[in-house]
Design a protein that fits this description.
With 262 residues, the chain is α+β, with helices and mostly antiparallel strands. It contains seven helices and 14 strands.
Length: 262
């Protein structure tokens, strides 16, 4: 087994182990706190999942760099491999018992997205991709949809935690999309939204003010399924996640025009 295969196998294993914690704690009692905003939540389940992931990586791959949402990072500036982890993407959903959340693990090699795994524990759907190897869900090859116009497209989006007090709140873009698209959904998990573009459930998805751990796995999965991911100006999707537009590729330019008011 070469190193990419070993990293891929470990990411799959870790995603399922963290997902098992989420499945066991779903709709039980757990501690919930706010972070940057009252609606920016973290639960003890987020922290338990992150602890499992980070501790395992530090034990099994001690020389790798780790960026994890809840602060359980392990910095190694000279590392060839970097793990970008969202231990529970969709925390607000999880806290309310809304069944849409996932574990997201993206891995870069020498700064290039190389492995992506997103695991939805309630549906037992494991989305995965290795650069150059295509994308799969539970072993089934994924392909983006054939939809060719925004007017027939089912889109998804989300809103940042500062939506109450920021002028850049995605509401203008949302209104434009609602007026032009076949439908717009808001499910509250960027990782799952990206995977749904990859498997054709959504034709496109955009969002503002995300973070690296929200998109690191999903971007690769979309691209390996034949889709396109950019910023809202059509340039490369920033690793920071500050803005992202993804689609099946066929509607991409039109989607960008709609969101931009063109």
């Amino acid at each position: 087994m070469d190193e990419v295969e070993a990293v891929h196998a470990l990411a799959l294993r870790l995603a399922r182990e963290a997902g098992a914690i989420q499945r066991a704690r779903y709709e039980t009692t757990f501690a919930i706190e706010s972070k940057s905003r009252p609606i920016d939540l973290v639960t003890e389940v987020d922290r338990a999942c992150e602890a499992l992931l980070v501790e395992t990586l530090r034990r099994e791959r001690p020389h790798d760099d780790i960026l994890a949402e809840e602060g359980g990072a392990h910095a190694d500036a000279g590392a060839a491999w970097r793990w970008i982890i969202d231990p529970l993407d969709g925390t607000v959903n999880f806290a309310h018992g809304y069944p849409c959340f996932a574990v997201s693990i993206g891995v870069e090699h020498a700064g290039v997205r190389t492995v992506g795994v997103v695991y939805d524990p309630l549906r037992d759907e494991c989305f995965e991709a290795v650069r150059g190897g295509g994308a799969r869900c539970n072993g089934r090859p994924l392909r983006v949809s054939e939809c060719a116009e925004v007017g027939r497209a089912l889109l998804a989006t989300g809103f940042a935690y500062d939506v109450r007090d920021s002028d850049r709140d995605n509401l203008v873009e949302f209104a434009r999309a609602v007026k032009h698209a076949g439908g717009v959904r808001r499910d509250g998990s960027a990782a799952i939204d990206l995977c749904y573009v990859a498997c054709g459930r959504y034709d496109g998805y955009w969002e503002l003010k995300l973070h690296p751990w929200d998109v690191a796995a999903g971007i690769l999965i979309v691209e390996e399924a034949g889709g396109r991911v950019t910023d809202l100006a059509g340039g490369p999707a920033p690793a920071s996640g500050r803005e992202i537009a993804s689609s099946n590729g066929r509607i991409h330019d039109e989607l960008l025009r709609v969101l931009g008011g063109g």
